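Example with several molecule types.
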Amino acid sequence: MTAPRKPTAQKHGTAKKPARSRIQTRNRQIILEAALEVFSNNGFRGATLDQIAVQAGLSKPNLLYYFDSKEAIHRDLLTRLLDTWLDPLRMLDPRGDPQTEILAYMRRKLDMSRAYPRESRLFANEILQGAPRIETFIRTELRLLVDEKACLFQAWADAGRIARVDPYHLIFSIWAMTQHYADFAAQIDMIRDDGQEPHAGAEAFLEHLYTRLLTP
Amino acid sequence: MTAPRKPTAQKHGTAKKPARSRIQTRNRQIILEAALEVFSNNGFRGATLDQIAVQAGLSKPNLLYYFDSKEAIHRDLLTRLLDTWLDPLRMLDPRGDPQTEILAYMRRKLDMSRAYPRESRLFANEILQGAPRIETFIRTELRLLVDEKACLFQAWADAGRIARVDPYHLIFSIWAMTQHYADFAAQIDMIRDDGQEPHAGAEAFLEHLYTRLLTP
DNA sequence: GTCTATACTCTGATAGAC
DNA sequence: GTCTATCAGAGTATAGAC
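Resulting C-alpha cells for the full complex:
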C-alpha cells in the first residue's frame, strides 16, 4: 500500500514542511473544520479545546498532537482564510466595463459571505478585537490592493464612466453590506422569523442599490 | 453622619431596587464605564475581572461588592444599551417627508456609531456569538419596531413617494453601513493610515448613496 | 466599603502507557 | 497515533479582617 517513500531528505535546509501522511493531512483537516465552527461562533478566547475536540470527534491531547497549541490552530485557520480573502477584489478587471466590474465584485463578496459565513465571522471577530493577529496583513497586502483599486475607481469617475463617489467608502460599503448578512445573520434570522436564509433577497437589493449609485 | 434611615420598608414586597447611596451610584458608574471599555474590546469571555478592576481603579473583590458577578455587569451594560438602541428608529416620523426622514434616520445611526463606538462593538460581539443574551429583545421589541417601520416604508413606496426597494433590506443596509465604521474601525484605520477618524467622509458618501437609492 | 488571602473551577498543555 | 491521568496557571468568586 504505502509505496516505500524516500526519506524525503528535506532538501531545502530548514525542515519547514514535515512530510505528512494521509492520516495526518486528514486529521488536521478534520480539526481545522471543527475549529472553524467553534472559533467563528465563540471567538478565540471564548472557544475551548474541549469544544473543538468534541466537535472533531477526537480527544483533547490528540488535538495537540497535530497542532502545537490552540493559538496554532487559530493561526492556521486565519492564514488559510486570508489567502483567499482578497481574491474577489483581485479579480476586478481594469479593462472591463466599470459598472459591470463593480457589480460583479459585490456579487462575488456576497456569494462568499453566503458560502462561507463562518469564515466571515472568524474575520469579523478578529477585527472587532482590534485585529491583533492580522495587522500586518491588513497594513500591507490588503492596503496595497485597496489602494490600487481605489485609484482605478477614481480614474473611472474622473473619466465620467461612473458617478463621482469616494472610492474608499465605496469599497467599505461593499464590505459592510455583504458581510453583514453573514456576521449579523443571527439578528436577521430573528427579525425575519421566516425560514429564509439571511441572504435571501440581498442580491436583488444590492444590485439595485449599486446600479443607482454608480450610474453617472 | 448617616442620618438614621428608616428601615426602608421596601413597600412593594420584593426588594427590587435597594436604595443606593451617592458613593454606590458613583462606583457602579465607574465600574460600568470600565467594563464597557474592556467588554467591547475583548468580548464577554475574553474580558477578565482583573482588566475591569484595573481599568476602574478598584480591587477585584470590590467590583463584586457592587455587582453580583461578571455576568451581572455585562447584563447591566447590555440592558442600558438596548434601552437607547431603538431610539433613532423610533424617532422616524410617519408624517414627515419620506426621503428626509430616512436620511435623518441614517444620520442618527451614523452619529451614534461615531459617538458610541464601544456600545456598537458590545452589541456586535453579542450578535456575532448568536445573540444568546438578547434574543428576547430582538424577537420582540426590535422585531416589532422594524416590522412597523418596514410597513411604513412599503406604504411610501406604494404611494410612489420613494423608489421601490425591499424595506427590510433597506433597514439592514443602514445598520450595516453605519455600524461598520464603529465595528470595523481597526481595519479602516489601518487601510487609511492617515490620522483621520474612521467615520471621516462617511456622512457625505451615505447621504449621496441613499438619496440616489430612494429618489423615485 | 475596601482590602488581603484564599477556595475552587476551568482550561491549556504534558507525561506516559498502550 | 491515541488514550487516561494529571499538572500548572488563569480566572471567578468568597471569607473575613479592618
